[in-house]
Design brief:
homodimer, 436 residues, alpha/beta, FAD/NAD(P)-binding domain, 2 domains, 6-stranded mixed sheet, 4-stranded parallel sheet, 25 strands, elongated
């Protein structure tokens, strides 16, 4: 940056997800000193994370260093650090090891799943939000088949080969579908003792249908597609307990050594440090221009923001396209105001453009709504694949993901069935778990 | 397997590396009940492991589940388990959680690096033998640049950006070369505060030249190539101490936050449980037919075996081709004896066919000897790349590795620069390390 640049306004962006990254890019030509802070070094293409958890893709296929993505944007520096709070009066973001002053702030630290107030379930039922989460789920899933292959007791074997996925949103549907496919298509010829097609995959949803953000007919189709893959779908079922041997649903009990969590929403705790009103999930209630009450220069975008769409009177959903749009919108305001040298009149309210919604169930199976039209089966799956590949960042990643998918499509083989860490020790622990 | 199969001789193979896997394959048509036991679920293409450690490849690119590799071999089952010992009188392999009886046994559990008797250095100076090792090194390497970017103190920054690689064999040379290339070619445009080209990479070798298994002229060329990449090569230098702030070499001290270990050889402890004579590194001294003293049906193959080549009167080196040849040789004897129904006369001594030796230094730089001819520079590197891609298991892995390499070649971009685990916390720990 030139010497003059040191007088430019400081824009701090917290979070390098879709919202944060699209905000930074929108400011690429702005006369601003931008700092993007994230606690991990990579931008993650979250919609494909379940494919890492189910051994189809490698982490690097869907993640790229934020630095690499922004390397040509000379007005932006990237900082690996964990923000601990925001001091609105002093205009600084506090870190665990320092602080960063700002003139404008865009908070985009997202949300994760929630255990309905039972945080102690987290250790028993891992969720899926980061690469580490995905690797932990992959590890548990793959190890179970290894443990079952060596387990002489039939009841224990059955418990080991019962997988429960809690939450029938897109992530839960995708996880359950992919797990069923691996057990039924990829693995059977590789084991000599167990029949992997007998593995039970149970998807539990508290509502009366899956994929609540889709039209009922598509929810129904997703359920039937999952059942065709061998997934047990339990609707109107509320998990009331989780322990090392399974889950409880009221009076009912399912014995299972593996429970995976894909339910609930819990906003990043950084939202609360803004001192603005938050909703039940901890999301910050923002004004129509995505700023927090009483502060025109602090924006909250992406999954952390709670906002009603001005046109549809519906909550803007916590999906990637909404995050991208919010990031771009907030950064656009900042860009224009920096150029104008002041607050540039009244700000137009944020309006979410819903371009459609797709969820995949398995090979050649998906459901979706695009421009009001419903899609199912192979065509929906093809649209889903194409759109997801196109939105991946980096040409090489696109190429590699396409190869991996083509392979899985034709040969049913998964590319990343690795158990890392001390596998044999973990297996003993899994086999040795106390029984009911 | 047919009912008759349960009367076939039981062949147990310990280890799914090159030696164990090639042994199993050699027995693919044998009337034998084969059990391959490994403590991890994947076969690892070790010669490319340094590329995982230096963020060029993903673990799944060079590893494949042993089950998948052997899925069509119906006479072989694969067991994820850790062997703890071998009971020769009872003819069983003992596991941490069970035991497995054998008629024939092939022990192929390999070797790892050694800390010259200072096992306490292991935590300070990670070595490179497993995928977890590679990920730990990658993490440390990448985190250092992140920490340096945020470090105001110049001396601390220098310590953070000093990387020491101990051991000038192929692994050490490859690690040092790749690290220098990333720091000088891939990273410079991505950082705003530090100049990554000032990172110091120091390669320390105790002998008077690098790559002792190569002719002296190639060792010299490798040193010059490394120096051209910016690596400091220290020869005749013996590490006498390692602590959190660097290494000591006699009276000399190098301040460095990162020390990586690629020296020494230490055989798998399972070798000692055979009760046969072992060499200083713990390798089992086998007879010319690779069996242990006093037992015609227990073979030791691969890096765990210590044997003089009958023709050359030289020790068979611990390299992948030797492991493959030994595995095939031992399994061939078993195959023939099973077919003959008895010990089939005198066994021909194992003879190592040395097909050549290649080591890579960086992009378009390598050295090698093939059929007595010396190769250097681009041609050696091209041979090295081609041979390594061809020996990878699985067509898809070959394709993906070629894409990754082509990308790195043209764009200097590395495919897998991910820091996993709690990165921000690890970074604080690295920055906060006590100074000398």
């Amino acid at each position: 940056m030139s010497a003059e640049a040191s007088t430019w306004p400081r824009v701090v962006i917290l979070g390098g997800g879709f919202a944060g990254l699209y905000a930074a890019r929108e400011l690429r030509r702005a006369r601003a000193q931008i700092t993007l802070i994230d606690k991990s070094n990579h931008h993650l293409f979250q919609p494909l994370l379940y494919q890492v958890a189910t051994a189809s893709l490698s982490p690097a296929d869907i993640a790229r260093p934020i630095r690499t993505v922004l390397k040509r944007q000379r007005n932006c520096r990237v900082m690996l650090a964990e923000a601990t709070g925001i001091d609105r009066s002093r205009r600084v973001v506090t870190l665990a090891d320092g602080e960063v002053p700002f003139d404008y702030l865009i908070v985009a630290t997202g949300a994760t799943h929630a255990y309905f107030g039972h945080d102690d379930w987290a250790a028993l039922a891992p969720g899926l939000k980061t690469i580490d989460d995905a690797l932990a789920i992959r590890q548990r899933f793959l190890l179970s088949f290894e443990a079952a292959e060596r387990e002489p007791d039939a009841a224990t074997r059955r418990a080991i080969l019962t997988f429960i996925v809690v939450g029938g949103g897109p992530t839960g549907v995708e996880l359950a579908g992919a797990m069923a496919e691996i057990a039924r298509r990829a693995m059977p010829t590789e084991f000599r003792t167990i029949d992997t097609t007998t593995a039970r995959i149970i998807l539990i949803e508290g509502n009366e249908r899956l994929l609540m953000s889709f039209p009922p007919s598509l929810s129904d189709r997703a359920r039937r597609d999952l059942e065709a893959l061998g997934v047990d779908v339990w609707l109107n079922a509320r998990v009331t307990g989780v322990d090392a041997d399974g889950v409880r649903l009221g009076d009912e009990r399912i014995v299972a050594r593996n429970v995976f969590w894909a339910a609930g929403v819990q906003a990043s705790p950084i939202g609360r440090s803004l001192g603005a009103p938050v909703d039940r999930a901890g999301r910050v209630q923002v004004r129509p221009d995505l700023t927090v009450e009483g502060d025109d220069r602090i924006f909250v975008v992406g999954d952390l923001a709670s906002i009603m769409d001005a046109r549809t009177k519906q909550a803007v959903p916590g999906v990637a396209p909404a995050a991208m749009q919010m990031g771009r919108y907030a950064a656009g305001i900042i860009r224009r105001e920096i150029r104008a040298g002041a607050k540039a009149g009244a700000r137009e309210a944020f309006a979410y453009r819903d371009k459609g919604n797709l969820a995949t169930i398995g090979r050649a199976r998906a459901v979706g709504v695009i421009a009001g039209r419903h899609y199912t089966g192979w065509l929906a799956w093809f649209l889903w694949s194409t759109i997801h590949v196109l939105f991946l960042i980096g040409f090489k990643n696109r190429l590699i993901v396409m190869i991996q998918w083509a392979w899985a499509y034709w040969w049913f083989e998964r590319g990343a069935r690795l158990i890392t860490g001390p596998a044999a020790t973990a297996l003993r622990a899994l086999r040795g778990k106390r029984e009911v």
